[in-house]
Amino acid sequence: MKKDVQEMVDRGEMLPLMEEFYTIQGEGFHKGTAAYFIRVGGCDVGCHWCDVKESWNAEIHPPTLTSEIVENARKYSDTIVVTGGEPLTWDMGPLTNRLKANGLNVHIETSGAYPLTGTWDWICLSPKKMKLPTDEVYAKANELKVIVYNKDDFRFAEEQAAKVGDACILYLQPEWSKRDKVVPLIVDYVMANPKWKVSLQTHKYLNIP
Ligand code: SF4
Fold it and tell me: Which positions does UniProt annotate for S-adenosyl-L-methionine binding (predicted)?
């Protein structure tokens, strides 16, 4: 990467853009809401069941000016979801400042593994065992979404729920490939522990991105 491009990426003025698309938010609190998704490349958290492994290597995704990303996004929706990869790999300040300056609602989907940058209207924290979230992300999360792959994830979910604020909404979401096995466990768990809610990847049932 050229030095000047690298410097702009380091400042968050450019981001490795993997894809962007207008769709329906399928998961969590805002499920069913039309939103424009900005998927930023780069993640070293390493979830073995990750369904966007193509996002991991930032170098294969073109560094793109945040001004261009915002100019495009604002044509589609008032609600913008920044996802990855792990968006907090990068300085989210310039992107979110521009999105906010256009009056847009700005959401993030993050593992919380890196320091919180940017200004957010909604923080969806989906913590991962391999790289736990920073204290600031726990404190500011609006929803906690724990992916359930096996029974140990219920223990992990409770551990994580103890670290977020009282107003944070708690979700258990089946890992897609294990959904047949895990959904009945989640249903029983939520009925026994009603502070939790079920989240499903409804976009996959709707066959949309
Ligand atoms: S944090 Fe997200 S993008 Fe990164 S490996 Fe895990 S599921 Fe994939």
Answer: 49-51, 85, 126-128
